[in-house]
Q: What sequence folds into this?
């Protein structure tokens, strides 16, 4: 019997877009997340703990304790099923659980028998992946242990959201610097253009030819209006709501 492919979440396209926006995939190992997986293994006395991100065709491990591989295919990964739930997805004994009987991670050499995955639910309600614990022996979770696993998953989410907000703040600061530089150049250019136009207008008036002064004055006014319009357009992104840190 072949393992059934996990159901795809209804919001899959938006979920994957949010993962890309957070720029988490394929980032280097990180001490903060590694401490969380080490802590999870110590608290639950399990050999393997993982912070996983479920991509469109793979499950990538942001942090892994007790496991060498950096990613596996989305099918047959159990995390792909776990993200369909908003609560801990639990398999106490994989050799008797119909959801996992045919899974090669269970039937093969890996010998997975216990899996508990708490979803990493980000802002917007997207389940990016899981904080999961794995054992080679059947076991269960007490209500207190469930609460601890959920708390650790919430710490992972908070850390990811904090880093996303920091990147947004940095991008906003860079945008403001670049905008200020462009405006400085535009104002300098406008000043030169206006001075030139007014010099032509002054000369025309001195020659008692006021009709020749008007086009120069008009050009100066048009240039000023265009610059003001450009500044207002470029300021629109600054009015967007930024994520709070």
A:
């Amino acid at each position: 019997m072949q393992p059934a492919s996990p159901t795809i979440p209804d919001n899959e396209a938006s979920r994957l877009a949010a993962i890309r926006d957070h720029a988490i995939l394929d980032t280097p190992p990180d001490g903060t997340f590694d401490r969380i997986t080490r802590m999870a293994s110590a608290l639950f006395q399990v050999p393997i703990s993982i912070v996983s991100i479920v991509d469109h065709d793979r499950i990538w491990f942001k942090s892994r304790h007790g496991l060498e591989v950096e990613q596996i295919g989305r099918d047959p990964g159990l995390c792909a099923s776990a993200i369909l739930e908003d609560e801990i997805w639990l398999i106490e004994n994989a050799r008797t659980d119909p959801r996992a009987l045919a899974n090669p991670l269970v039937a093969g050499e890996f010998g997975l028998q216990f899996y508990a995955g708490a979803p990493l639910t980000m802002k917007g309600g997207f389940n990016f992946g899981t904080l999961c614990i794995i054992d080679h022996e059947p076991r269960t979770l007490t209500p207190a242990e469930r609460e601890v696993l959920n708390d650790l998953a919430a710490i992972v989410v908070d850390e990811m959201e904090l880093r996303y907000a920091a990147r947004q703040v940095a991008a906003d600061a860079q945008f403001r610097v670049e905008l200020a530089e462009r405006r400085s150049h535009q104002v300098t250019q406008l000043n030169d253009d206006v001075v030139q136009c007014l010099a032509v207008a002054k000369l025309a008036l001195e020659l008692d030819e006021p009709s020749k002064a008007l086009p120069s004055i008009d050009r100066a006014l048009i240039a000023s209006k265009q610059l003001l319009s450009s500044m207002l357009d470029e300021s629109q992104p600054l009015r967007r709501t930024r994520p709070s840190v």
Notes: The beta strands are 48-54, 58-65, 71-73, 89-91, 114-121, 127-135. Residues 172-239 form one domain. DSSP finds six helices and six strands in the chain. The first strand starts at residue 48 and ends at 54.
